[in-house]
Amino acid sequence: MIASLDTLTQVRRIWKPVVFLLCLVPATLVVTDGFEITGRLGANPIEEIQDRFGIWALRFIMITLAITPLRRITQWNWLGRFRRMLGLFTFFYALMHFLTWFILDSEMLISAILEDLTKRPFIMIGFAALVLLTALAVTSTDGMRRRLGRRWQRLHYAAYVIAFLGVSHYWWQVKKDVTEPLNYAAILTVLLGARLFWRWTRKRKTAKDFSAPKQS
Amino acid sequence: MLIKKPADIRPSEITSETNFLNRRDFLRSGAFAGGALVTTTAAGALVPDQKGAQLAGVAPGPFSTSETQTSYEDITTYNNYYEFGTNKADPFANAQDFKPRPWTISVEGHADKTGTFDFEDFIKPFDLEERIYRMRCVEAWSMVIPWVGIPLAEVVKYFGPTSKARFVAFETLNDPEQMPGVRRPNLDWPYREGLTIAEATNPLPLLAVGIYGRAIPNQNGAPIRLVVPWKYGFKGIKGIVKISFTSTRPQTSWNMAAPREYGFYANVNPQVDHPRWSQARERRIGSGLFAGKQETLMFNGYGEHVAHLYKDLNLRRNF
Question: Considering only CB atoms, which chain A residues are within 8 Å of B139?
Fold first, then answer.
């Protein structure tokens, strides 16, 4: 059966639903750990929930940003089909992280929330990342992509800004040991570095291609 | 009533848990309470070298709160003890094989009695008390913990600080073999803390050797740790191996690591925020997902006993 389908149909019918369900596992575990079926949320469950959603938002944006370089290296063009879904899961986990903070941690106390948003840089940074993510999520449909045309690509480069803000947000709230945030910063540097390197080599190549005919 | 060299007590002679509990009921009933106390405290403080050993001869101490106590599980699985890792679950996971015996505490500096003491001899001159204190972490969460320990003020008096002693400095064991956290430069090891001599001789601070009537678990600072209930939790230095009486203010670990964020005094103060978060409210561990936070109290609610220590101090500047 599977073999008879072409790659893109296989991706659409089988692999996309599988990856979708896999992406839901961390969120499901928060619920099942909350009911102590699969594990526990520990002594400070609100902090644990908030941390888990936050770290998965960071992981998902790294995975999303890794798609294009991976596709380029492996030549597996079907990988691109997962990019939007992974990007939307980044938004989902960031939103859950925000809602945990807003509802459970801050208890929707508007005064406390406004104080945090105006006085605490790491919260401002996180909030800015969420606003940008919302813009990308809203414009992620085929219709919006068509309507925005070339501006769409420019807008979606903001994914790198979001990743940078996300890592800074994490880095800034750590009390002392920055090993974990450092790991994410390193991954982001590699991902961004790869793109810049390719862009640079392509430019040199095109420059050469243009200069070649003149010499002949 | 100090007994210098009490006979060693064999495990077989230690009161069993049931007898111990019955004895406490007996004490609570009030009958012959005076006489019973004398006989139970005559031996001095003793902590058997055995994980979770029941502690005998624990008298109820002053200043205890009647608030709901945090569960033993939460108290012993959610810890900041960077010597065993920087995540809250790390100390429980990494401290299980830690050996809190044999243990020595060296007493140094401006005091009449100095030297290196075995843990057993160090606590022996004092009596064990239970004190149920609020513990407010600088990270804006709190617990209510039934500590067992010896009052720091009595320990300080026992060693006889001279007029030059203006501060008491503490140090934690720094053992890379047993403490995976100190193999990494997360803090400038060993962990250091300190109090002014006035703070150290206040009746509130405790050198804790137990929790919930049992020997203190490794992840909570075995065999002996400091508890200063009106200050943020990081002042409560764990696994103490050195106590010095100094004339100058000692370096303290978190202050060294981030002087803008953690001061020497570190008094609980809802009006002075941490640069990165508010200190106005706190989450009580174990209160559940929807309980909300509660207001943080000035000096963690111990103001009547300690506010006078700081009457001439600008607490915003000296945070």
Answer: 175
Q: How far is A202 from chain B (nearest CA, A)?
A: 42
Q: What chain B residue is nearest to A34 in terms of C-alpha separation?
A: B289
ipTM of this complex: 0.83
List chain B pLDDT tens, one digit each, 319 residues: 444 444 444 444 444 554 544 544 444 444 444 444 444 445 689 999 999 999 999 999 999 999 999 999 999 999 999 999 999 999 999 999 999 999 999 999 999 999 999 999 999 999 999 999 999 999 999 999 999 999 999 999 999 999 999 999 999 999 999 999 999 999 999 999 999 999 999 999 999 999 999 999 999 999 999 999 999 999 999 999 999 999 999 999 999 999 999 999 999 999 999 999 999 999 999 998 888 899 999 999 999 999 999 999 999 999 9
Assigned domain for B91 exists: yes
Residue B205 in domain: yes
CATH, residue B252? 3.90.420.10
Q: Measured between alpha carbons, how far is B143 from B217 in angstroms, rounded to an integer?
A: 16
Yes or no: say if B210 and B58 are a contact pair by the CB < 8 Å rule: yes
Structure token digits, residue B22: 């019955």
In B, minimum Cα distance to A120 occurs at B276
- CB environment A147-170: b (16+ within 10 A), e (fewer): eeeeeeeebbeebeebbbbbbbbb
Secondary structure, 3-state, A99-118:
HHHHHHHCCCCHHHHHHHHH
Report CB contact under 8 Å: B86, A115: no
**In this structure, is residue A171 part of a structural domain?**
yes
Q: What is the DSSP letter of B103?
A: -
Asked whether residue A59 is domain-assigned, the answer is yes
* Identity of the residue in A107, A115, A121 whose CB atom sits nearest the CB atom of B278: A115
Q: Give the nearest partner residue to A120 out of B78, B88, B277, using CB atoms.
A: B277
Range of the domain at B103: 58-310
- Choosing among A31, A41, A46, which should be mutated to test the B contact, i.e. which has the most B CBs within 10 A? A46
- Provide the domain limits for residue A22: 2-195
Strands (E) across A8-167 are located at none
pTM of the predicted protein model: 0.85
A46 and B289 within 8 Å at the Cβ level: the answer is yes
Of residues B141, B186, B273, nearest to A44 (C-beta): B141
Domain count, chain B: 1
CB A44 to CB B73 under 8 A? no
Domain-located, residue B223 = yes
